[in-house]
Amino acid sequence: MTGSNGAGYERFLELWSEVNDLSRASAVLSWDQETQMPEKGSEARGRVQSTLAGVRHAKLTATELSDALASAAEGVEEGSVEAAQVREARRELDRISKIPESLARDLALAATRAHESWRRARAASDFSLFQPDLEHMVGLKREEARLLAGPDGRPFDALLDQFEPGVTEAELEPLFTELRGRLSSIVRAVTESGKAVDESPARGDFPMEAQRAFGHRVAREMGFDFEAGRLDLAPHPFCSGFAPTDVRITWRYLADDFRSALFGIMHEAGHGLYEQGLPLEWDGTPIGPATSLGIHESQSRLWENLVGRSQAFWSWCLPLFHEYFPGSRDVTVDRLWPALNTVKPSLIRVEADQGTYDLHIAVRFEVERALIGGEVEVRDLPELWDVTYEELLGIRSPDVADGVLQDIHWSFGGFGYFPTYTLGNLINAQLFVAAKDALGDLDAMFARGEFRPLLDWLRDNIHQHASRYPANELVERVTGRALSPDDFLAERARVAEEVYGVTV
Amino acid sequence: MTGSNGAGYERFLELWSEVNDLSRASAVLSWDQETQMPEKGSEARGRVQSTLAGVRHAKLTATELSDALASAAEGVEEGSVEAAQVREARRELDRISKIPESLARDLALAATRAHESWRRARAASDFSLFQPDLEHMVGLKREEARLLAGPDGRPFDALLDQFEPGVTEAELEPLFTELRGRLSSIVRAVTESGKAVDESPARGDFPMEAQRAFGHRVAREMGFDFEAGRLDLAPHPFCSGFAPTDVRITWRYLADDFRSALFGIMHEAGHGLYEQGLPLEWDGTPIGPATSLGIHESQSRLWENLVGRSQAFWSWCLPLFHEYFPGSRDVTVDRLWPALNTVKPSLIRVEADQGTYDLHIAVRFEVERALIGGEVEVRDLPELWDVTYEELLGIRSPDVADGVLQDIHWSFGGFGYFPTYTLGNLINAQLFVAAKDALGDLDAMFARGEFRPLLDWLRDNIHQHASRYPANELVERVTGRALSPDDFLAERARVAEEVYGVTV
């Protein structure tokens, strides 16, 4: 603590912690809705979420909090923890002051409703079941974006900022242009090579319970603490952290291909390790949460792709794999590894290989910009989706369930969220280079099943800082460089060369 | 609606609905804590529950609500639905106005902590792990009881009133005295008869998953709607209704005796049918919930005992039982039925037979009265418990896990709750006589697996009224008589005669 404003600062943190408790209650209710709630419960749940959002909004906009913040801000030292607390609180209060309580409630209610109709629409592969609720949601999000951006800002930037503070459409556009160009070259080179990877080692008969147990085991070996977390089936894999002591990940599976479940679990466990590693000391304070979704995604993708898809990891993991799946006893690392690193255009983002994944994100970036900008309407989405997939990936979904309805995000109003996945890819590649510089031969450790040094490095360099530093500043502090796509694209080129023998 | 105060009445219901939403959020969080939450999450969860309790308390005590209630109350017609809404709201506001917000928060926090330490203490069979948290809880409850009772009331009555409005210790005392006398006579006569029931037909090897599926099936046949509810494993069976559209029951099981799981599920499904049958029209209003725990318990016990332990039910259910448990194919109704209706003193309330169950409640009634009255302290409980069991049931637990730590109730501060179980027994017996008068040969229906007529009768006579009428008034309306123990004791005597051939 600094200066004489100790009591004001404490009061500010106390009030903030109550707001945070209301967010947590909402988060538990959302997790419950996704994994546990019976179908007919959604109407009543929507009202509860709406009330909680309203109460939270009222507390965030109360004079008591802004007064306490003003008092807390007096005399804080630049660069101190207290200054970071004030900065993050101001950011949130500034945002919230622009949103009327009625809109906050409407958004919460709309999310509950749209979530249910999205689920039904996806099951029936019928966009019309989702369309009215999505139209309502988009209307609310356009209004929210307009209010947040103000007369001089750009609405889509305001939505991006919620997930990745400071990032703008203008910065992302050249980035996606470069990625599209380079990734397309790799895809083209692979296609032209005529070489196909034998994916049969990843296929077979994988009983659900064995997949769960295997994924659970791998997550534990990564360091995920199951006394402070859990793993549940859900229609869409996600991670919810209610506190560093209560972090929940979900999974889904394909009965004939183990990759979907395993890499989904490693991905969500990567998120979960970040959440479990956030400092308890700052829990419930403005800087307590993860600093950005891009950083969050760098953690999940690092474990999923740079650890889980490496040869070194599999030279340790193969005996475990054989133990849980005796039917795959003839699978070797040499045969399996290429099947984990294919480059092949496909329809479903969350099942996409790492060579094409960011092209899926590029589709969504284009579609969302146009939608929030008002250049297209909800009714145009199925067609726009298919056309853009055709253009970027050269394929088209036979139905809307695997097309425009595949992602949960729009149902909760998460426009501007997708680009953080690609930022996560760029960040994780750059972090991994720094980790190797610091720790030496990571591959040798992975081959021995030693993941603790890497986790400790991430804890020290990323997790323990929570939101103390903005994402871009954190990346520079840890890697000594501003974020660039170079490491990521180098890794993609290296893998394509090793698997397909192509040089791009 | 009546009179010219329509807007005031609507505003009152709107404000009430928000308070109710906060209660629901808390209820979901409690269910989650009991069935899903990882162990380390309890500290953070306690803070969230405490904040929610504080916000709810503030909303309930806000002038805005009392003003709206006053305005709503103007000119309501006696006997109308609106009058019942005002009555129930006043009851709650009167109660809450006596409890300072700080005490409400402390109670919520204490419940979360005590719940965790109770769980640990029970697992370790070590009362000292629970004692400090329970002492804290008892201190808070004594304070709450004192404030609620006021200078002229009796503290224990104030606690009873929370669960069974209007019931007093003075009314319960002669009731328990009569029950103790009559039930003890039956137990004595059974013991003296020297006849023992062969319980082996209820024992065997019952795989957990088959028990779950069997219980699930029976609950469905009773009419429990699984699209508006669910069934989960938990350390203690309970039912949580978040809305008529989201009702959750839990179960536990013994691997070598199917009775624990099946009758637990039928019991909780009986609660669940009441919750699912509450009118949606009144959902979230003051008269929306069940009218009392005694009435609630009458529903669970009616299905568990008067349906589930009847010969008629088993003449329908036996083929199902054989289907789920092929190892029990040689079991017949004649052999099984006595094993479902034993009279034998035992240690665990929730596993107790129906001939001795209310003696377990009598123990708790004695212990709680003494504890809240300040005649004994928490440290005395293990010994007092054992002595009272010895006195009333003639047995003593070898450890505290199956003794004073067996019930969850005190961990959440539920003092005054237990007597509602016995009231439920008295009410269900009296209701069942009325249902037979109205519907005719219920046994013949049960033998055909027809439970709908009984459920419809309960929906019409009990469920649809929610809290419109106080419990004692409702019983009189439906049965034409004030509540008495006669029907219950007659049923107990009849069963003892049929099973043991004793006449009391």
Summary, kept brief:
Helix content of chain A is 62%, strand content 3%. Chain A is built from 20 helices and 3 strands. Chain A is globular and about 65 Å long.
Identify the strand order in the major beta sheet of chain A: 1-3-2
| N-to-C span of chain A | 54 Å
**Strand fraction band of chain A?**
under 5%
Which runs of chain A of at least 5 residues are low in confidence (pLDDT < 50)? Answer: none
Name the helicity range of chain A: 55-70%
The top level CATH class name of the domain at 170-500 in chain A: Mainly Alpha
Strand element count of chain A = 3
- Most extensive interface, chain pair and sizes: A-B, 39 and 39 residues
| N-to-C order of helices and strands of chain A | HHHHHHHHHEEEHHHHHHHHHHH
CA-based shape of chain A: globular
SSE-based structural type of chain A: mainly alpha
Rg over alpha carbons of chain A: 23 Å
Structure, described:
Two copies of one chain form a homodimer. With 504 residues, chain A is mainly α. The first copy, chain A, contains 20 helices and three strands. Chain A is globular. The longest helix of chain A is centred in the first third of the chain and has 30 residues, at 6-35. The first copy, chain A, has a domain at 170-500: Neurolysin, domain 3. The model of chain A has no long low-confidence stretch (mean pLDDT 95). In chain A, α2 packs antiparallel against α5 and α6 (131-149) crosses α7 (155-163). A three-stranded mixed β-sheet of chain A has the order 1-3-2, with helices on both faces. At the A-B interface, α1, α2 and β3 of A face α1, α2 and β3 of B.
